[in-house]
Amino acid sequence: MPIAELPTTPWRAGAFERHAGQLLFGRMYEDPAIELAHVAPHSRVFSIASAGCTAIALAAAGHHVTALDINPAQVEYAAARAQGAPAQTGAAERLLANGRRLLPLVAWGESKRRAFLELADPAAQLDYWDRTLETPAWRTALDLLLSPALLRLFYRGTFLGALPPRFEAVIRTRLRRCWGTHANCTNPFAWRLLLGGAPGDDAPTTVPRIDFICADAAEWLECRPPRSFDAFALSNIADGASPAYIARLLAAVHRAAAPGAIAVSRTFAEPASEADAALAARDRSPLWGGISVRRIGKD
Question: Looking at the domain 25-87+206-295, which fold is it?
Answer without folding.
Answer: Rossmann fold (3.40.50)
